[in-house]
Amino acid sequence: MSKGVYISKALAVATVVLTVSAVGAIITMITIFQLQVNENPPSRPPTVPVTTEGPTGPPPNMRLPNNLVPEEYTVYLQPYLYPEVYNGTNQTFTFTGNSTVKFKCVKVTNRIYVHSKDLNVTSVWVTDESGMSLPIKAKSLQEDDSNFFEIKLQSRLKVQGTYHLFTAFEGEMFDDLTGIYVSQYTENGDEERFLVASQMQPTDARKVFPCFDEPAMKAVFRITMIHREKTRAHSNAKETGPPKTTEIDGEKWLITEFHPTNKMSTYLLAFIVSTFDVKETKYQRSTVRTWARPEAIKAGHADYAQKITGDILKFYEELYGISYPLNKLDQMALPDFGAGAMENWGLITYRETALLYEEGVSSTSNKEWVATVIAHELAHQWFGNLVTMKWWNDLWLNEGFATYISYLGVDRVEPSWNIKDLIVLNDIQAVFQVDALASSHPLSSNEMDVQTPAVISQLFDSITYSKGAAVLRMLSDYISDKVFQNGLQSYLKANQYGNADYKDLWSHLQEAVNANKDNYNVAEVMDAWTKQMGYPVVTINTMNGAVSQQHFLLNQTSPYNFLWHIPIRLMKSNKGLTQDFLNEKGPVTKEVYETTGKEWILANVNCTGYFRVNYNQENWERLLQQLIDDHHEIPVINRGQLIDDAFNLARAKYIDVTLALNTTKYLLNDTEFIPWESALKNLDYFILMFDRSEVYGPMKAYLRKQVEPLYRHFEDLTINSTVPEEHTAQYNQINAISVACSNDIRDCIDMAKAQFQRWMTDPSTNRIPPNLRSTIYCNAIAAGSEAEWEFAWEKYQNATIATEKDKLRYALSCTKDIWLLSRYLSYTLDPEKIRKMDAVSTINYIARNVAGQSLAWDFIQSQWTYISQEYGGGIMSLGSLIDGVTQRFSSEFELQKLKQFQAEHAEDTLSSGTRALQQAIERTQANIKWVKENKQTVLEWFRRESAAS
């Protein structure tokens, strides 16, 4: 099938549009361009030093040669899309445009290489500074992953010479959520609307216009949009004035011209043409605007985002020591968007669920997500946009930093949430799982290993985001937050409007360390964390004070001789904190790790370090006894850490599995979210491994016993639809209901069914508290029949709030009816039913259901060719799909299915899923071994503990 759901409509009119309208439009744009050049003649650029003559043949790899440096683009774009379609209107999804890039020649060459993909380049001119045309010998698009458009000149370009490359082009806008694309939605119930949106990261600016599409090829951009009447165009910079009206082929069009941007990378460009409404406020010298569907703006769904944006900007200006660099900030809530959000400089784009919030409908987690994503994208306006990584191998500098700093930004605007503690659950414990596999990768990859768009896309993973955040948090804690801030400010000021790599950051942080008269070697400490894959387990023997480190892998002994420089904060029972530093493998004996009598040691206090901790049996037993006697003596973060470390140490065979299970016994007396969530995430592995075996019955009985006090703790609040005061308590109330219902506590199931039935009886009034809707919907549908499913499906189709649609979309996957799950899977390939951006997560939801797991795997096997073509362009989509549908794999039969799938599909069809498939194979092999070794022991433990009074 051709790419994009709108293709059949587009092809019906594409020929007419491109032959009749394109020529006139291009002439119009060229005329406008020439008038503006005359009004604003280009200034002479600075002199570039003469360099030695470089080769003139094709580039030796997938990177652009460094003989040409872009300085300024003038781009005209004309999307032909209508925002509304009336009777007799032929909707079209084509665009035309032209671009003139002024560039400097720094090495002799007779070839110009730019990137171009999926474009029909209709005209090419090259002129020198005087405007004289340079004869072109040949031009061609290279047939490989480089996407190089090569222009061979009859004569060589001169060093220090300034030249202009003009290209006219035409293309189609698909619904693939990349480049410049089409988004479709409804207003006023059932009225169809269309908008033009863009997503350039990482390598899709080349799908919009020919350009030097690499992050270090920064330039100034002058953008002009030619768009339909009754629409508004947006780009990175402010408009120069109101749109001008012109006539093209008998139709009225609007021309919106934007001020020149700051010097920036191509992947940060953004273009939107819509009929959205706006919420606007003034922030110091900048205008802050939030744009969304008119219905959403009118209903106040953008109010929360608008309220917190200015405060987060102010905090970042203090943190970075640099004012927000632009005079406007637009935030756009898009009905269709592949990622969570994108940090385009001055025009940030979001999924609706990441920007819009409605009090009384959206949940606490929805609100936290909005705040977190806004804080993440605003962090990028400096770290990533103002200073950009030189190449994609250092993507973690952008994403890891923004992930870490987002916790600080949210903490500033919502201090009562204690959000900074949740990085341990959301990022550190999560990425530990991936980074404990032999198929993991270092934060900083070798530059030569990151060449093609597919490989670049694979870097947008949890290692880049979450491990990046974790090691930066560790570094900030190690050298002190103030010194970290000073070094960061120095780094940004020194490299603003330019590019840098991790060595530049270490250098400026080292200067800050030296200025503080500290004796830390930043590069020496951090290189081990960024250049090596994985992380260490620190083993402490409190009987003799011995401490050592070892590369932690879940299912094998490490073949690498890795050594980390590890800052360790530890505490002894009834004593204060101590700091140590381990920079050798060991074991080495240190008095600080010795205990006497019944004393215990707890290392990695508050999980500031990126490592796991193992102890001798005696210390483990003392810690477990302390949890039973008075768990408050151990910090809440470390209660979660002890559970998470123990379960994973057991999987790697450092300790016995029964010791890990014993860490959950004290939870009868704990109502805090972090330890409960840590336990449930790890017990979820046991559920995945055993919910198709005889272990599951005793396991459910144990979980029922453990969760009963927690469910009763929140029961009155639940029955009275009251929200707990504390942020994390609201999350643990959800945990209590989810675990109680799924493990057959009758009161919980009856409560969920009654609340859902009350809604079905009165569909116009939903009294289920927003925080509890997801779990109550799910459990009511799981306990119900076709009637509950169909009711939820109708509500999903008619929901106008994106967060509510997401809750219902998840809940629909909870049914136990195989035929409903099978039909639901088929819906994921129909964008009229499930939006493309939601297809992967919906399939993964179904795979999480034990009744749907095998259905989901069979489905993606049979549909892989179509899925890889339609959904393969989005960041992380295919990787997260493979990861999601294979979580339960734990048999030789399932392993062979994976290997067969790998053999049947070449790397080009696996695309961004290549690494995820290898990780799935490795994980399945580990699961097979673990189940074989532990099944009987686990069965006996659950039987014994569930029967104990």
From TrEMBL:
Residues 69-268 form the Aminopeptidase N-like N-terminal domain. Residues 41-63 are annotated as: Disordered. It is found in: Membrane. Its EC number is 3.4.11.-. Transmembrane segments: none annotated. The record marks Y465 as: Transition state stabilizer. One of its GO terms (cellular component) is extracellular space. It is an enzyme of class 3 (hydrolase). Its main location: membrane. It is a single-pass type II membrane protein. Its cofactor is Zn(2+). Residues 304-529 form the Peptidase M1 membrane alanine aminopeptidase domain. InterPro entries: Aminopeptidase_N-like_N, Aminopeptidase_N-like_N_sf, ERAP1-like_C_dom, M1_APN-typ, Peptidase_M1, Peptidase_M1_aminopeptidases, Peptidase_M1_dom, Peptidase_M4/M1_CTD_sf. Binds 1 zinc ion per subunit. Keywords: Aminopeptidase, Glycoprotein, Hydrolase, Membrane, Metal-binding, Metalloprotease, Protease, Signal-anchor, Transmembrane, Transmembrane helix, Zinc. Zn(2+) binds at H376, H380, E399. One of its GO terms (molecular function) is zinc ion binding. One of its GO terms (biological process) is peptide catabolic process. The active site is at E377 (proton acceptor). Pfam families: ERAP1_C (PF11838), Peptidase_M1 (PF01433), Peptidase_M1_N (PF17900). The keyword Plastid does not apply. Residues 600-925 form the ERAP1-like C-terminal domain. Belongs to the peptidase M1 family. This is Aminopeptidase. It comes from Megalops atlanticus.
